[in-house]
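Q: what sequence does this backbone want?
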């Protein structure tokens, strides 16, 4: 370019036409998630959603959550596989809403990239749309932003936000939890979307390529690390309705059997479980009730990572937790297993005093992420 050449948006690195092509490629995926409640066509400045159905609830409360998928996107970029990362995004956002007992209604996404490559962007959105369809969530809009000079041409990041609804009488949370309740674990599909900074450091230090075939996985390292986040939305909400009732037909009693859920994301299982327990209440979780999936064992051994650090960082095979009344625990486990979700009783709830956990060290976690909640005591040894 000479000094007299005009400066255009294209010469600055933004390809508007590529953005338009990406929109056309993703259009069908997005529209496939639309329910009759979605008003207007694709491509408006804002998504519209008919909330008339909320009138069936005596006191509807809106629940909202936003999240991303962290540095897992770096592995997707290295593998040039982009249609699974959307499952991670939806799982991180929508299943946080489910923790409160809320049913997701709609979601929006945001993709920032160094250069719009239409098929790559459409691949990302196709994954988001498929996961939205599986969870009954309408994808009502989004944004793809091209940031040349800020991100490399092959780099991108994704984020999303979702809104759901729950009746005031049906909200789940710490105030429902009682001593004597049982803790039910639900199996993860792998690492999900948290702890990838640790995983990538382990892989880099070991000199492993993502194309490396790993016998324990029965596939390549990259394929294992990109395993999509399991979606818990439908089975969890079905359990709530089956055991607690429908708030549109009756007010949900404070002692309804399903007390709450904990979505195991950043910080590991114990820290996230502690967030949904009231002060003065402790969950004792028996490690011997489950075995780590191979990916955690292989990565932990490869990086010589202390067990306590693995527990503070990764889900170690537990992606969602339910706190339920003891009398209903067997029924909840049976219901979840029938829905295709591996579930088991992993611990129990009790009151406790500081003396009860004296000397527990790193096996005891109390409060997390700004929540001064209950405590979690990890006991026993994991099955191998």
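A:
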């Amino acid at each position: 370019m000479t000094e007299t050449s005009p400066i255009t948006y294209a010469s600055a690195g933004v390809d508007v036409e590529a953005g338009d092509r990406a929109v056309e490629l993703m259009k069908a995926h997005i529209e496939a998630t639309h329910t009759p409640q979605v008003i207007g066509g694709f491509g408006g400045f804002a998504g519209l959603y008919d909330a008339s159905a909320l009138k069936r609830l005596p006191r509807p409360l809106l629940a909202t959550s936003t999240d991303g998928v962290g540095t897992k996107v770096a592995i997707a970029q290295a593998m040039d596989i982009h249609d699974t990362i959307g499952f991670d995004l939806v799982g991180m956002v929508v299943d946080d809403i489910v923790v409160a007992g809320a049913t997701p209604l709609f979601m929006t996404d945001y993709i920032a990239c160094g250069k719009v490559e239409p098929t790559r962007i459409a691949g990302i959105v196709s994954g988001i749309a498929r996961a939205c369809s599986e969870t009954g969530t309408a994808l009502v809009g989004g944004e793809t932003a091209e940031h040349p000079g800020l991100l490399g041409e092959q780099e991108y990041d994704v984020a999303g936000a979702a809104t759901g609804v729950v009746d005031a009488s049906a909200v789940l949370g710490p105030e429902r939890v009682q001593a004597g309740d049982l803790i039910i674990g639900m199996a993860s599909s792998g690492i999900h979307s948290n702890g990838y900074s640790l995983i990538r450091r382990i892989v880099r230090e070991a000199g492993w390529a993502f194309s490396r075939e790993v016998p324990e996985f029965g596939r390549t390292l990259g394929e294992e690390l990109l395993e999509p986040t399991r979606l818990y939305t439908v089975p969890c909400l079905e359990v709530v309705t089956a055991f607690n009732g429908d708030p549109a037909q009756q007010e949900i009693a404070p002692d309804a059997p399903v007390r709450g859920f904990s979505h195991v994301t950043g910080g590991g299982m114990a820290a996230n479980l502690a967030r949904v327990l009231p002060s003065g209440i402790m969950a004792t979780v028996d490690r011997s009730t489950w075995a780590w999936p191979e990916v955690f064992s292989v990565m932990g051994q490869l990086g010589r990572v202390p067990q306590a650090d693995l527990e503070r960082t990764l889900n170690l095979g537990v992606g969602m937790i339910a706190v339920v009344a003891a009398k209903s625990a067997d029924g909840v486990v049976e219901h979840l297993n029938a829905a295709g979700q591996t579930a088991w009783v992993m611990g129990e709830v009790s009151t406790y005093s500081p003396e009860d956990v004296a000397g527990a060290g790193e096996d005891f976690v109390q409060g997390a992420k700004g929540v001064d909640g209950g405590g979690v005591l990890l006991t026993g040894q994991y099955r191998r």
